[in-house]
Amino acid sequence: MTPKNYDTLNSFTKDELIDLIGIYSKNWLAMDGVWFQSVERKFGMDEAMFHDAEAWKRFTVIEARRIKEFLGLPEQAGLEGLARALPLRFYGNLNRDEIILEGGTLTYRVLECRVQAARQRKQMPLHPCRPVGLIEYAGFAKTIDSRITCECLSCYPEIRDNACTCSWLFRLDE
């Protein structure tokens, strides 16, 4: 079935569509932050983090499956498949990041994070994203290839690398 707005989207140039993807990504991230901050204001950080974790348990798998299908990745796509999939995540074009694939590992580092930058601008405490990040990144990676494990190298509130916002190490368990 062709989407209702196919004619509208088809009328845009490639550059306009790329800009629109950026707008969609920012809108998604804004919605993620708006609901989180609403729960955080009313019930506190612990309750907001609980609901954030519950949402990411499901969303990260949905997102990974769709990207995996879009890329035509095999069931066991390995670290190379993960390296192809990570930049296509909904916020992949919003944060400045890097992927280092070497020696049987993949390191994903977020060098500049829009979420943490926004919270700092608003003079809010940093988002304690490590617990949810473990759910998010491990779940995404396992959906790309069930043999992939994920370890947090550095993420607030446990910063071990001041050169980035967070850092994640992925290995292939054979």
Q: Termini separation (Å)?
A: 40 Å
Number of helices, where a helix is a run of at least 4 consecutive DSSP H or I residues: 6
* Helical amount: 40-55%
Percent strand equals 15-25%
Number of strands: 4
Quaternary structure type: single chain
The coarse silhouette is globular
Biggest beta sheet summary: 4 strands, antiparallel
Question: What is the arithmetic mean of pLDDT?
Answer: 93
Report on this model:
With 174 residues, the protein is α+β, with helices and mostly antiparallel strands. It is built from six helices and four strands. Strands 1-2-4-3 form a four-stranded antiparallel beta sheet. The longest helix has 30 residues, at 14-43. It starts with 5 loop residues before the first helix and ends with a strand.
Quick recap:
With 174 residues, the protein is of the alpha+beta class. The chain has helices at 6-10, 14-43, 45-71, 78-85, 114-121, 130-144, and strands at residues 96-102, 105-112, 148-155, 166-172.
Outline the secondary-structure elements.
Blueprint: H1 6-10, H2 14-43, H3 45-71, H4 78-85, E1 96-102, E2 105-112, H5 114-121, H6 130-144, E3 148-155, E4 166-172
Antiparallel strand pairs: 1-2, 2-4, 3-4
Helix pairs in contact: 2-3, 3-6
Quick tags:
174 residues; alpha+beta; 53% helix; globular
